[in-house]
Input
Amino acid sequence: MRARLIAWMAVGLVATGTAVSVSCGGSTTQGSPDGSAPSGSSASGSASGAGGSGSTGSASGSEQTTGASSASAGTGSAAGAGSGATTGSATGASTGSGSSGMSSTGTTTSTGASVTLFHKNPTRDGVYVDAKFNKAALMTVHRDTTFSPTVTGSVYAQPLYLANGPSGGEEFFVATEQNHVVAIDATGKVVWDKTFGAPATSGLPCGNINPLGITGTPVIDSTASPPIIYFDTMTTGPKHMIHAVSLKDGMTEQPGFPVDVSAKVSGFDSPHQNQRGALLLLNGTLYVPYGGHYGDCDPYFGWVVGVNVSSGAVSSWHTKGSRGGIWAVGGLASDGTSIFAATGNTEGANGTWADGEGILRLSPALAFGGATTDYFATTAWSQDDTFDTDLGGTGPILFDMGGAHFVIAMGKDTNLYVLSRDNLGGVGGALTTTSVANGTLIGAGAVYATSQGIYVAIRVYGSTPKGCPTGGGGNLAAAKITPGSPPTAKVVWCAAEGSLGSPMVTTDNAGTTVVWDANTRLYGYDGDTGMKLFAGGASGDAMAAGVTGFTSPIAANGRIMVGVPGYLYSFKP
Output
């Protein structure tokens, strides 16, 4: 599948000596609409050559949806990104972008330590505030060998975390391709392990994940009592089932669930659709994105399916052109008002743009107005369709800078695009386009702010970044975004390690900002310079496998957690 991406995040920043306000309102190979690596290319191997990922979250208390968190960074301090949760219009396309709003049950924004959705925030910025990861602590980071739970199956979904789970303490949740959802306490003990139907092992027209079960990262509503986890399974049939399960015991399905997508959505073809992107919960509606399988077996479309979690009402939208999958690991992003999706290559457009190769703004009712303010497509979208250099492999990341609203998108065409969130610009409407890679951009990026400026952490698939000032050789880099008319992007540091998963970022809000990534080892890099602050550790700090696909670590109350096939690992000072 040809997938292009726009990732925009909202971050609040005041750079030293510069009035820059930032607030937050967020891999697949070519021909891989499901967001998975090609057969035989799961990241694993040596410390410097295998893909891996960890996960972190911190703080205590329950999750609440909050307005856009504008983090400010004064001299020597780093700023995180947050997100708004203003209620959008129920009908029509949402033009413009909200960046503030109050919380309400049925919207998930991770506050405090808990990690209830992919990359911590609906903006998909991947920024975690954790005071325990300061420079002194980084000198002592190591794998916690007393924490050693095992899980059944490959792990493509990012782990999730509740600082105050239903069992009365910290709990981690891991979903696998065997359709297992596992609850694990802070000591590594399995609290419960439930299976939600047999995964699909046959009957799929193509693909490279077998068995195929839970691939996209679930989302947790921690405002519910007890909290509810939402996820999509591929089961025998094959068919997609959307579940809503109590985290108290993993057994109680909510009224109206599970939802058989093919039975509820006219024209949805379960065997031909894959669910790779992270789920989103916004103002009482669950949104689930779908693309195709590796191999682009037709017919499939880029779908978004919405389920009202109270009434059970189902809404949907799909691309006008066939294919156009929404398959990036980061899934859908939101500023609290609108939903943003990156679509892949379409087929048979015949010179008329058909919703592919773009960043699209959808209303909460899943309406797309088609105005140029509500979409961006690459200038060469038709050529990108033909050559599978699509935008859908990396999801949009949202952020605000200097009072303006932006989106970051990245594509297989090597380009990083900066877009205006208020006017996405239509075909060729990017504010700035910068080639930042010698190969495709697939995975999830992260947007973060320090006292020195605003950066985008970039994951390159199967190649290296472009424009590295020194060093490099790996597949991770950071580009600095400089305000202006238009803003500019420039690669400022590159890592030496290869086969890394998707990056995430921690800040202690006191001057230490770390970009984390993993293969069979965990690495931490200075957010401004790329200097290695954690170099993988000692021999006992290696993991048994690297991360599968393009998933990401998380931060969880002084720990970095990494999900890999069969295991959940914990690293701490």
In short: DSSP finds three helices and 38 strands in the chain. Confidence is low (pLDDT under 50) at residues 1-105. The first helix runs from residue 135 to 138.
